[in-house]
Amino acid sequence: MPAACGIACEVCGLLVKGVCPIGGCVAGTDERAPEKLEKVKEVIGTPCPVLECAIKNKVDYCLKCEGFPCEIHYHEFPYGKKFLDVMKGAKEMM
Prior knowledge:
This protein is mainly α. The protein has one domain. The chain has helices at residues 13-16, 33-44, 49-56, 71-75, 81-93. The chain is globular.
């Protein structure tokens, strides 16, 4: 199951290495999303900005959001700037 960021938890490096503080994430529209967000805050002291934004904007995955890519992605995990620029260019062509 992919997380709000679009990465499948099964292949996420944080989960695979056993350092994921919540044992796998969820889509932003999943009923468990607020609970997962609180768990992240509890464990690492700060919320996941990607999941927090997805919940706030009521989107399941960032790639489906009209604002993608946004500043959160350019300053946070999980995508690199080159990938975001490619996605932004492709979106502008649509």
